[in-house]
Fold:
Amino acid sequence: MARFLYFSRDYSTHDHRFLTALEKTGHKIYYLRLESRGHALEDRPIPPTVEQVQWVGGDRPVRLKDGLRLFLDLKKVLKKINPDLVHAGPIQTAALLVALTGYRPLVSMSWGYDLLVDAQKSSSWAWATRYALKHSSVMIGDCQTIRQTAVLYGMPQDRIVTFPWGVDLQYFSPGNEVQQDPAQEIHARLGWGKDTFILLSTRSWELIYGVDILAEAFVLAARRHPELRLLMLGNGSLSARLHQIFTRGEVADFVVYPGQVKQAELPKYYRAADLFVSASHSDGTSISMLEALACGCPVLLSDIPGNMEWIRPGEQGWLFHDGNALDLAEKMVKAIENQKLLAGMRREARCLAEKRADWNKNSQELLSAYRLAGLN
Structure:
């Protein structure tokens, strides 16, 4: 039985997904948490056989001045556990700390934003990216855009394992005729008529996810089609700005904020939506996109490279020009005025998820990456 140390920034839905997959390998899994950002990102507990490591980190947000303290204690943790392999990410935080200790083999994992956004912040971030990748035996990424970016920062092509993180296709599914119609349930709960057309956003209310662009576009589209409704799940620092946009646009009554929805409730919202919308300016393979596809929900996404690897306009949904609220509004209008196309798009969405986004299948690539790193 091998010992794997999984080292991540916080405990999120994605971490739960990876730890659950690693638990199924039958190996001994340790989990090290770099920080806690003050609000729960995942409501399910750590898998029962995974051992969470207690150390000086993991209980508050990380600051730059904490670096030396974390580095020194990480060396003690590694010496005590003596793992056969360390799996760490994001690149410039968890992976960098391990790289600095000199511990090998290191499998670094990109979280998308670390390579697409953070690496370009400054020369220091670029150096941290190159250093971590240079000292990684293997890097895991979720799309070709991440692979190409990693190569630009010095990671050899043949040391990169690429696979989409995927979703549980049984959990995220279109449902069946036995289940209560989620659209009717949500319509009834919110007092919306049957003729309303529901747009769904699940992205955090931060600039990188373009939620301000989404809000501006919704105002424009709802003026032409007042039957439009918007469900904005989650929360974030742009709350006041979003409310201001909707209020000034006189569409505040058309928007509902369910808050941070538990994992168990998410499929219901995807099934009830007519269209999932994401205006994100940066993504690898978006998990929320995959969840929507798996639930048979057509998508309307920004035309960034990560999204373009998945979506063929007119088949699973549509793409709009990144950052262009007018184009996004036009695509919203196109969707509501062409509802006859949506049934076919729902089938295509689910078909694509079954073909490429099955986490039970894709997670097997983890051990492929570990073997490439030298694990017997």
Remarks:
- The longest helix spans residues 67-81.
